[in-house]
Structure formats: C-alpha cells, structure tokens
Specification:
about 375 residues, alpha/beta, Spore Coat Polysaccharide Biosynthesis Protein SpsA, Chain A, 2 domains, ten-stranded mixed sheet, 10 strands
C-alpha cells in the first residue's frame, strides 16, 4: 500500500435501522466508584431505568472515603438487579472494572463512570445493532457533555441510521488521527469479544482507548447516528479535567505502544498502523505547541518540549510541515503571534477543527 493510500480517510457504511428483538438480552453495567456518593444515584438510576433489555448493575467501591459504599448498598437493597462489591484496598479504576467483570454475567457490557449518566433507551438501541450484526463487537453513539450543576440537556432518542465500520478501517482511522473518539459512557461491548481479546490493561488514563483498539482489531464497530447515548458530566476534580495537552499525548502514546506490543490477536499491517499513529501524535504535539504560542504566555522551553515529544515519538518529525510552523514561532517574539501569517494559520486551523468536530458529531470519527 502506498503512503498516500495508507493516510487516506476511511469511512463506515450507512445502513437503515432495523427492528430487532432485544428483551432477552442482558447488559451488565459496570460502575467503578470512588468518592462519588453525590453522583452515584443518578448514574445507577439511568442504568436501572433502561427499557427493552435486562439490566445487571455491578457497582465496585474502591475504598471510598465518603458515603459512596453506603449509598451503593442502599441502592442494592431496593433492587435485586444490583450487585455491590467493596475492594479490600484501593485498586484504581482498572482494578475496579476487572473486579466487576469477574462477576458480570451479561451478554454485553457497558462501562459507566459514577459521575456520568446513560440516556434513555441507549442500551436497547445498542443491543439492536449488535444483534442485527453479529460481527460487531463494539457499539457507540454520541455523548452529550454537560457542566455539573446544570440541567441535563434533552437527549435525542430516535436513531436515523447505523454506521458500520470494518474493524480494520475503524482501527486505521484511530491510528491515522491518533485520537480517541470515545468518551466512555456511550459504549456497548460484546462480552464474547472482550473475553477473546482480553480485559482492560492497567494504564493510568487510556486503558479504555487501548481496549477500543484491541476490540476493533478483532471485530467490527458500529456507530448509532442521530441519537445521544449518554451524558458526560464535566466538573472540577474529574480525571478528564486534570490532564494537560502533553500529558494527554503521552498517555495516548502509551495506549498505542501497549496495543502494538500485544494487540490481543493477529494484526495485519502492524508496522504501517504504528507508523501512522506515531506520525499523528507527532503532528498533534506540534500543532498544540503552536496553539500555546498563539494563545500567549508560552515560553521557549514550552515549545521545545513539544518539539522534543514530536521528535521522540516520530523520527521524521522534522520533515512534517507542522515542525517548520512551530520552529518559526520558537524564533519569533511573543508579539509576532498577531502577525498576518500566524493569524491566517490560526483561522485555517480553527476551520479544520470545526469540520472535524462536526464529523465526530455525525459519524463518531474525526
């Protein structure tokens, strides 16, 4: 395959929504819990209130210091579909998910952070896709991000179509962009595929992303168009709120390196895909360095750090056009960020970003 073809954007195939029986399917919703007593009731209610499927809710308290465990047990006392586990010591999010998986019995699994909420009907919508297309091991949809303390936005609940990806094409796109397109509370996983590729691995921040890579290497992927599958709460103290751009890049690199070291099964074109992923991460680091300069306040050391990451992850980083753009900023005075050249680059970058986000909203892929 030529470099041009390898770098080309790949898209899924749109198919009509089908009426599929789902009432006999059991979905195990897994909630790892640590010091989120105030959020847990809403998360649990969103799972237990799902219709069209059988729900098993597994809550794993990870040695919380607030009333989380007591709240979880009170929820279980009122509903025999709920199972509560208490870790003997703090195991972190991955350890809690592994504990939940060890007792979960559903045909499908759904991971839910205790501060997020599943949209009405989301489980049945996802199961319908998986039942209609047995080759699909991962189904996701659009998550609505909302600030804590605000009223939940109204969710769209009538799908317009299903977007089906071959697992290889979806994986290619993740490597081509270097980005994780899934927030996490909007994903249904077929348990048989999960057992085949292996459970989540102990990565601090991108264990979910690395798992999506493995699942797509072993099965097809589907995106439900026209609906909102979950609400993702944004608040101070959440894991996503405390990650810097360079930290995020390093964690994504770790996810890719972990995946390529052991993809959980056969992987075609491994070298090509790893080359794409490393180039994408290098480009992203250089673009984010330019953004830091353009926003003001970035020091030469800040820009050098982005250049260093790019060169470390991708040996040909200096040949990328983004390298020259960041180098030119490194040699410029802070006031030069208002120069016509840099202003034009910012406008073009914004247009590209807006286009990517619109595509993500429609298709679940940048």
């Amino acid at each position: 395959m030529t470099t041009a073809l390898a770098a080309a954007t790949r898209r899924g195939r749109t198919v009509p929504v089908e009426e599929v029986a789902t009432s006999d399917a059991t979905v195990s919703v897994l909630i790892p819990l640590h010091d989120y007593a105030q959020f847990l009731p809403a998360a649990a209610a969103s799972a237990l209130g799902q219709t069209g499927v059988r729900v098993q809710l597994v809550i794993v308290d990870d040695r919380s210091t607030d009333d989380s465990l007591a709240v979880a047990r009170s929820i279980a006392a009122g509903d025999d579909r709920v199972l509560v586990l208490a870790n003997p010591r703090n195991l972190g999010p991955v350890g809690s998910v592994l504990a939940a998986l060890a007792v979960a019995t559903g045909e499908f699994s759904w991971y839910l952070d205790a501060d997020d909420v599943i949209a009405p009907g989301a489980l049945a919508r996802a199961v319908a896709v998986a039942r209609a297309h047995p080759s699909v091991g991962l189904v996701y949809g659009h998550p609505v991000h909302f600030p804590d303390g605000s009223v939940l936005p109204t969710a769209r609940t009538t799908p317009t179509s299903w977007l089906l990806w071959s697992g290889g094409d979806w994986l290619h796109e993740r490597c081509r962009t270097g980005l994780n397109v899934i927030t996490s509370p909007e994903v249904l996983v077929r348990r048989s595929v999960l057992d085949r590729v292996g459970w989540p691995r102990p990565l601090p921040h991108t264990y979910d992303m690395e798992l999506w890579l493995r699942l797509s290497a072993a099965s097809d992927v589907a995106y439900i168009q026209g609906v909102d599958q979950a609400w993702h709460r944004e608040h101070a103290g959440s894991r996503s709120d405390t990650v810097t751009p360079l930290h995020d890049l390093r964690e994504r690199l770790l996810a890719f390196e972990t995946f390529f070291a052991d993809p959980g099964g056969p992987l075609e074109r491994r070298d090509e895909l790893e080359h794409l992923a490393r180039r994408a991460l290098a480009r992203d680091a250089l673009v984010k360095g330019a953004q830091r300069f353009d926003s003001g306040g970035a020091t030469a050391a800040d820009l050098e750090e982005h250049l260093g990451f790019a060169h470390g992850v991708y040996g040909d980083a200096a040949r990328l056009p983004e390298w020259e753009r960041l180098q030119s900023r490194l040699l410029s005075a802070p006031s030069d960020r208002f120069s016509p050249r840099f202003l034009l680059e910012r406008v073009l970058r914004r247009l590209r970003t807006d286009r990517s986000w619109r595509r993500w909203h429609r298709e679940g892929s940048f």
